[in-house]
Amino acid sequence: MFRNLVDHPWVLVILVVLLIALFGSKRLPDAARGLGRSMRIFKSEVKEMKNDGKEDVKTSTPAGAAAAAHDSEPTALEAKLAAEQAEADAAQRQTRAS
């Protein structure tokens, strides 16, 4: 399938034109931005999952109780997600106002 895109670049041009026609020029950057945010979140979650096994060994010590109390606080990822959501909401309100 992807070989056709390399062999026949006009297929890619037609695909881009169809995307612009279907979604419009205003929605495509928002969609790309949303996809980028999703990928960033996915990568950070995968990284966090890899580190979870390492942290379990560390929290088995008596200091683990302090770490468990720290878990109830919002993580940096949650704070970042909240900030991005607030940005998206503000941008959407601004778009609706115009």
Automatic annotation (TrEMBL):
<keyword id="KW-0653">Protein transport</keyword>
<keyword id="KW-0472">Membrane</keyword>
<dbReference type="Pfam" id="PF02416">
    <property type="entry name" value="TatA_B_E"/>
</dbReference>
<comment type="function">
    <text>Part of the twin-arginine translocation (Tat) system that transports large folded proteins containing a characteristic twin-arginine motif in their signal peptide across membranes. TatA could form the protein-conducting channel of the Tat system.</text>
</comment>
<dbReference type="InterPro" id="IPR006312">
    <property type="entry name" value="TatA/E"/>
</dbReference>
<dbReference type="GO" id="GO:0043953">
    <property type="term" value="P:protein transport by the Tat complex"/>
</dbReference>
<comment type="subunit">
    <text>The Tat system comprises two distinct complexes: a TatABC complex, containing multiple copies of TatA, TatB and TatC subunits, and a separate TatA complex, containing only TatA subunits. Substrates initially bind to the TatABC complex, which probably triggers association of the separate TatA complex to form the active translocon.</text>
</comment>
<feature type="compositionally biased region" description="Low complexity">
    <location>
        <begin position="63"/>
        <end position="74"/>
    </location>
</feature>
<keyword id="KW-1133">Transmembrane helix</keyword>
<dbReference type="GO" id="GO:0008320">
    <property type="term" value="F:protein transmembrane transporter activity"/>
</dbReference>
<keyword id="KW-1003">Cell membrane</keyword>
<comment type="similarity">
    <text>Belongs to the TatA/E family.</text>
</comment>
<keyword id="KW-0813">Transport</keyword>
<dbReference type="InterPro" id="IPR003369">
    <property type="entry name" value="TatA/B/E"/>
</dbReference>
<protein>
    <recommendedName>
        <fullName>Sec-independent protein translocase protein TatA</fullName>
    </recommendedName>
</protein>
<feature type="region of interest" description="Disordered">
    <location>
        <begin position="49"/>
        <end position="74"/>
    </location>
</feature>
<feature type="compositionally biased region" description="Basic and acidic residues">
    <location>
        <begin position="49"/>
        <end position="58"/>
    </location>
</feature>
<keyword id="KW-0811">Translocation</keyword>
<keyword id="KW-0812">Transmembrane</keyword>
<dbReference type="GO" id="GO:0033281">
    <property type="term" value="C:TAT protein transport complex"/>
</dbReference>
